[in-house]
Amino acid sequence: MNGKAEKDDFESDSNTYAIDRTVLANERTFAAWIRTGLAALAAGLAIEKFMIGVIPAWSHQAIAAVLLIFSLAAFLVAGWRYTHVHLRMAHLDVEAMPRSMAILISLGLAGCSLIAVFIVLLADWL
């Protein structure tokens, strides 16, 4: 093989690896946002459940609501960011998690957070 062909192969491989790294970074970031949202959701529900009688009712409801709203935001940001990066790479021939799956996961978890917020805020009337 001549030097030019080896250089072209190296540049092609380098570009392919860069695209793969970008896809993997996008999926890792999506997972990190989802993980953060799940942690906030669990913490908010735990505070609502286990802090009754320990601190005033308004304060544990407020803390739980803030954590649950944060989890809702984290889920929505996860879906938005994944979709944004995925669309920027749409013209490339790359295998990645389908955009619809990321949106479905994000919206499903955001719905769970929204339901939890209403349950926490309306717990006294239920």
Care to describe what's here?
The chain has 126 residues and is mainly α. The protein has one domain (3-121). The chain has helices at residues 3-50, 57-88, 99-121. Helix 1 runs antiparallel to helix 2. The longest helix has 48 residues, at 3-50.
* N/C terminus separation: 76 Å
Number of domains: 1
Mean pLDDT: 88
Largest sheet: none
Task: Please state the overall shape, judged from the principal axes of the Cα atoms.
Answer: elongated
Summarize the structure.
82% of the residues lie in helices and 0% in strands. The protein is an all-alpha fold. It has one domain.
Distinctive features:
elongated; 126 residues; mainly alpha; 3 helices
Walk me through the topology.
Layout: H1 3-50, H2 57-88, H3 99-121
Helix pairs in contact: 1-2, 1-3, 2-3
